[in-house]
TrEMBL record:
Keywords: DNA-binding. This is Cupin. It comes from the Archaea. GO terms for biological process: regulation of DNA-templated transcription. It holds the Pfam family AraC_binding. One of its GO terms (molecular function) is DNA binding. The lineage of its organism: Archaea, Methanobacteriati, Methanobacteriota, candidate division MSBL1.
Amino acid sequence: MLNELEGKTFRVRSLIDYQENAVVSKTLVDRKAGTITLFAFDEGQSLSEHTAPFHALAQILEGEAEIRIGDETIELSEGENTIIPEDEPHSLEAKKRFKMLLTMIKRE
């Protein structure tokens, strides 16, 4: 996907579409150092609690997301971001459909 985008102007959120009753993902960059993945969550869809061995920057591109990190729940809307610490249990839920760009950086 990255090769198709290099040197071109694009809107990130236009690279993925919603699907009814589904979570859709598209990997834009997949390297040893980390990944950049685009997600589209239909309303009511979620990712169950999990951990990852890298820090993650979650950027909400449109809609509204509820992200639980450890014991804290935060609500994010278009233009808002949060950092999910490495190895911290977290989950996501779409109270309304949303698109998110997730950048994960692996530890050294």
